Amino acid sequence: MPLSRLLLLVLLIGKGDSVCRLRGSAQPPELAQDGDLVIGGIFSFHNNTLINYFTLFFFHHPSFNFREFKFAQAMIFAINEINKNPEMLPNVTLGYKIYDNCGAMDILRAALALVSGIEGEVSDDNCTRGETVQISHFATCACLSNRREYPTFFRTIPSDYYQSRALAKLVRLFSWTWIGAIAVDNEYGRKGIAAFIQNAQDNGVCIEYSEFISSSGPLESLQRIITIIKHATSRVIVAFMSHREIKLLATELYRQNITGLQWVGSEAWITDHSLTDSEGHSILEGALGFTVSRAQIPGLEEHLRQLHPSQFPHSQFVRDFWEDVFDCSLNETANTQRKPCSGFESLQNIESTFTDVSELRFSNNVYKSVYAVAHALDNLIKCEDGKGPFASGSCVLQKGRPVCCYDCIPCPAGEISNLSGKLYCMKCPLEYWSNNEKDACIPKAIEFLAYDEILGTLLALFSLLGVYLTMITTIVFYCHKETPLVRANNSELSFLLLFSLTLCFLCSLTFIGRPSEWSCMLRHTAFGITFVLCISCVLGKTIVVLMAFRATLPGRNVMKWFGPAQQRLSVLAFTLIQVLTCLLWLTISPPFPFKNPLLYEDRIILECDLGSAVGFWAVLGYIGLLALLCFLLAFLARKLPDNFNEAKLITFSMLIFCAVWITFIPAYVSSPGKFTVAVEIFAILASSYGLLFCIFFPKCFIILFRPEQNTRKHIMGKTSNSDIRY
């Protein structure tokens, strides 16, 4: 829109500030209300048609612009809403001063009167206050986006940069490749039509002529443009101007009976209802263009219909408006042909463009402009020391530049900016993390050792492979259970050991997957009990071997003190101790799932808390004690006959077992997150594979590939037959 609509809102902070003032008598506001903070507005309440074009023909008095008056009422309605809202600007009342710019003829005087903030005689004795913030609902000129030239200008309507491109594409869409272009002779028209022409030519559209029109120019200028249109071969005209210029142009074209034109208009006039009252409105029928989106403002219609001159007793415009709508006179002494107003007139039953809220477009922009100012003031008033936009360091002002110019560095990880209009960085809550754009906090990713990740899949496969190999070994031993190699040293313990190894491999699976209450309790207790059962079997076999080959007196049967019954009882007793320890642990302080947000900044580790660390280390320590005892006994039996290598195999397996679990302790303590679980699974699998390979695979090799060695004579070697119980 033209610069005449530039100053929609001027923010006056406080009262009595020193400013540059207008010399002479200031224009009083048409509508005003006192307040702690005053918001000013300038609107074109009159369509002034005192134009040099027609001084030779006629003289028009100003007519009312109901649309602009509705804009002013939308501003007042928004201010009243804000004053009634206890959450916004508490203990602060907003006021307003609204001026009429008389159809752009006196906008400068109105603006200076508004900035001066006082009525009566004014001067420019003092000029100390900074620039006034301006917010426009209508000014679309792309030039106003230049922050160097207009550092305090804001708007609630898109720039003409986008409208010009859209109009060029619209013309091309209808294959109108030969057109004319006319624009108002100001920044709005010149910048807008220039951008349109550039984009149109880029889309293959040819421009026959490009002319500029002014609402205050000489008559010859208008007649020259009319002549160009009349003799042009193009019938499509793009008009980048306001409703004032298009009225002049359409009226003169109508007078000269120039018809058959297709108009493409800018947003400034394409939806202006006041054009229907102009003499040449039929010329513009069928015009195309883009406009602001339609919106709804709840409560505005009721506000408009409640308007009465008594609300603004000093406003001449409101009185004129009222008299025009009801065709009556509020001044009984005035010399007028109108009848006196009865006092019962009301807008409740009047249907007019003023009370019509079905097409709220620019009115919504005015409404949003007021709220933009109110939110800015609310943030300013509620701002606390040390928590302002530049309070540590995300944004810093550019030296020597306007206050809206600053340099920002990205917020560090875990912090966000631009939350509720704030420019400083804010830390996300403990269980949240910043997104990639650093403008929102999102829940942290929850991490645990899952089956669908590579590490979890590999550990699960190795666990199942261990179960498979153990079952194969069990089948081999069962098919050869009557052979001397299997019967030697209590075959029952061998099968029980294979069963416990299967459980050891399976218990590692409970460590994979999302931790839950039952899985946390199961994983550590199952691990502790199955490993004690396993080591108890190995310990029983070790004692059998040691007692059998350490008998020093011939014929002395020491095995009667540790026969099959005693062996079973020892395994049961050792295992029962671990079962009681686990029950005590689960009763007093069992393991439970726990979200650890402190280990990593960007994610939460879901792990099993031990509950009682004493219980965990007691279970682990008992396993280590049995393993160490088994290793010592097997070490004492290391010099047994070579043909019977059970003790050597047990010694080597216990050496691997102890090495794995001694290494496990520092690795377990130092591994972070899900890798702690992976280390524990690795220790379980490594020690289980060590027992399986060292104790059973050599025997399976002899059974399957060296059957000649699977004889009593070969196994016994130099020892007597009575020393071994089958």
Automatic annotation (TrEMBL):
Q: What is the protein's membrane topology class?
A: Multi-pass membrane protein
Q: What sections of the protein cross the membrane? A: 454-479, 491-513, 525-549, 569-588, 616-637, 649-669, 681-705
- Annotated compartments: Cell membrane
Signal sequence residues: 1-18
Q: Name one GO molecular function term.
A: G protein-coupled receptor activity
Single GO cellular component annotation? plasma membrane
Ranges for domain G-protein coupled receptors family 3 profile: 455-719
Name the GO terms of the biological process aspect.
sensory perception of taste
Listed PANTHER family: C-FAMILY ODORANT RECEPTOR OLFCD2-RELATED, CALCIUM-SENSING RECEPTOR-RELATED
Q: What protein is this chain from?
A: G-protein coupled receptors family 3 profile domain-containing protein
Task: State the species of origin.
Answer: Scophthalmus maximus
